[in-house]
Amino acid sequence: MAGKRSEHNGAKGWLYLLPALLFLGAFMVYPLFDVFVYSFEEGYHSASQTYFGTGLYNYSYVLHDPYFLQAVKNTLILVVITVPLSTGIALLISVGLNSITPLRNLFQTIYFLPYVTNTLAVGLVFMILFQKTAYSDGLINLMITWFGGSAVDFIDGPYWAKMFVLCFYTIWVVMPFKILILTSALASVNQEYYNAAKVDGTSAFRTFMRITLPMISPMIFYLIITGFIGAFKAYSDVVALFGTNLNAAEMNTIVGYVYDMLYGDSGGYPSYASAAAILLFCIVLTITCINLLISKKNVHYS
Amino acid sequence: MEVVLQNLTKKFPGRGRKNHEEVIAVNDFTFKIPDGKLIGLLGPSGCGKSTTLNLISGLQKPTSGKIFFGTDDVTHLQPEHRGIGLVFQNYALYPHLTVKQNILFPLENLKGKDKLSKQEMLEKAYEAAKLVQIEELMERKPGELSGGQQQRVAIARALVKMPRVLLLDEPLSNLDARLRLQTREEIRRIQRETKITTIFVTHDQEEAMSISDMIVVMNAGVVQQIGRPQEVYDNPANLFVAKFLGTPPINVFEGRISGRKLYIGEEAVLDVSGGSENSGISGNSGDREVYVGIRPEGFRLRDDGPLGCEFGSVEVMGRDISVISTNKASLNAKVRSIISTDHMGKIEKVCSADGFSQTSYVRFALIPHKVFLFDRKTEKRIAFQADGTKGEEC
């Protein structure tokens, strides 16, 4: 009887899970699996659903494609620069916000504004700030020339200038969310720990390093993981800044490359796109695993 | 280290539109805490006892008044320069550090000439750990310890720098009843061994009574009475102190003094006369309305006793019995009296005599020194002397 009963309950449980499973299966698992399959099918054509053969040729093509290599390089630079910088600056700002009482809400709101602003709108603003046009050199260049430097074309100019704008923009866009998370994490640290530290004569720096940081480490870790993943998936920001012809601008990202492969050149190459997507998946997975390994030692869950 | 509070006052500004009146958490405290004693700050929640502790620790600054440790004026010193150890109510152990790291933490902050070598720090940490008997837990994290063990670690961390004054904020409130009993003995032992002046805050009068050398009873930011626990219990200065100390609590009646007799309701229960010149009970001019406080152990069951109460029920506690009855003049809903089990027979007679269908009465004689009189208005104690032996027994 008991066995039958639990079996019955098991079926009920699956029934409850069914809606979620259906959606996840149809829109997540199946496409993932499909992409995986496509990546091994050479010359797959989505309209005719035909392909020539199977093998690793797609991967070989993508890995030898200079545009892909450029995209990987761009993405990696973006990730390596923006994730630590944005998290670090966000931490500084949060600590600052946490230690002032007057106007804290006002500042919090101001810092949160970019989060609720449309990416493309922000991209346009950045273009106005940085782009050289026939009429003006852009606000930033105006300032550079003021201080005696020579104007640089940030949007169509040298590679480093474009990368600078992209990183600057990315950091600016991801910051609000991080500040939001970190200020609430800081506020949730029990005041008693600080009182205890104060009674023991702990210096402010040591309090921060030995108490505050470990206490909010789970949140920092969360931000780093999602920051890495988010930066690897960068695309819309790049389009907002540099337009759609990213390969020509040398500013493509991996996701941009996948998109171009899918829809670019009238018809596209779904097989190459799939292979590139799987490669991106592998990179993100590897980085996340490394993150998790590092975090085991340094993140303290209470 | 002797701790002296001088006219210590702490006011908190009112917040918001509704309560813009400032709150006086600590009102003009002046008292001296002798060296090497264990002192309990006792009072109901919100009476300002934690604020007092925070003022002594330096985590809060007094609005006015002074604090001395011995002869040093520490009023304006930062907490770290006062030489105090503080144990927080929730222990505030750093959860990401091991017990050892937690105990070492205060030592690692020492700078300049006080700086210790690694070896010295470890020695001190183990010394403190040994004192509170947690040597075998040094490598664990606080999350892996029981409440009582965490408490010990917190005390070890507070003691490791050999503070001049040890402060404990509600040290037992997070422990279960059995552990509480054990831990308070521990605190007593540790205090005796280290001879560090220790001040602890509690709302539990039993806790304060059992281990303190001296208790400071507080209410609404005002010190009510200071003294040795038994003294305060036997000689409460006012109605609040009488009510606050003792379990079960004291029974309070509305009474009056008329012609050197104390009346509760219509019954004259004690013959009284002035205990001192200014007590105001002398001759007929001393007739007045009073509150009568009678400790539960101040009742004696006697068939011809002067105080009659409607019998309610009996609780047998093993060692003694509580007789629960009601009296019209009583301010408590129930009059609770504790009598020894020798009188069980009498109680059974009361129970069986009339049955439960109708009201039965119990009569009590009173033990005079368990009876306190308080002024109706000021609620201050009125000293009196019981005449004759009407109430005496046993």
CATH architecture of chain A: Orthogonal Bundle
Order of helix and strand elements from N to C terminus of chain A: HEEHHHHHHHHHHHH
> Given the structure, what is the number of helices of chain A?
13
**Name of the CATH first level of chain A:** Mainly Alpha
| Alpha carbon gap, first and last residue of chain B | 45 Å
Q: What does the radius of gyration of chain A come to?
A: 24 Å
- What would you give as the CATH superfamily of chain A? MetI-like
Description:
Chain A is mostly helical. Helices cover 75% and strands 1% of the residues of chain A. Chain A has 13 helices and two strands. A two-stranded antiparallel sheet of chain A has the order 1-2. In chain B, helix 2 (99-108) runs parallel beside helix 4 and helix 3 packs across helix 4. In chain B, the strands form four sheets. Chain B has a seven-stranded antiparallel sheet. Chain B has a six-stranded mixed sheet with strand order 6-7-8-3-9-10, with helices on both faces. In chain B, strand 4 and strand 5 form a beta hairpin. Chain B contains nine helices and 22 strands. Chain B is elongated, with a radius of gyration of 26 Å. The chains are: A mainly alpha (302), B alpha+beta (394). The interface between A and B is medium-sized, with 20 and 25 residues.
Write a brief caption for the model.
The complex is a heterodimer of chains A (302) and B (394). By secondary structure, chain A is mostly helical.
Key terms:
heterodimer; A: 302 residues; mainly alpha; MetI-like fold; two-stranded antiparallel ribbon; 2 strands; B: 394 residues; alpha+beta; 7-stranded antiparallel sheet; 6-stranded mixed sheet; 9 helices; 22 strands; 33% strand; elongated; disordered C terminus
Topology:
The complex is a heterodimer of chains A (302) and B (394).
Chain A: H1 2-38, E1 41-42, E2 53-54, H2 57-64, H3 66-99, H4 104-112, H5 119-130, H6 139-146, H7 159-187, H8 191-199, H9 204-232, H10 236-242, H11 246-249, H12 254-263, H13 270-298
Antiparallel strand pairs in A: 1-2
Helix pairs in contact in A: 1-13, 2-13, 3-7, 3-9, 3-12, 5-10, 7-9, 9-13, 12-13
Chain B: E1 3-12, E2 23-33, E3 38-42, H1 49-57, E4 64-69, E5 72-73, E6 84-87, H2 99-108, H3 118-131, H4 147-159, E7 165-169, H5 177-194, E8 197-202, H6 205-211, E9 214-219, E10 222-227, H7 229-234, H8 239-244, E11 251-258, E12 261-264, E13 267-274, E14 288-294, E15 299-301, E16 307-316, E17 320-326, E18 335-340, H9 344-353, E19 361-366, E20 371-375, E21 381-382, E22 384-386
Parallel strand pairs in B: 3-8, 3-9, 6-7, 7-8
Antiparallel strand pairs in B: 1-2, 1-4, 4-5, 9-10, 11-12, 11-14, 12-13, 13-22, 14-20, 15-19, 16-17, 16-19, 17-18, 20-21
Helix pairs in contact in B: 2-3, 2-4, 3-4
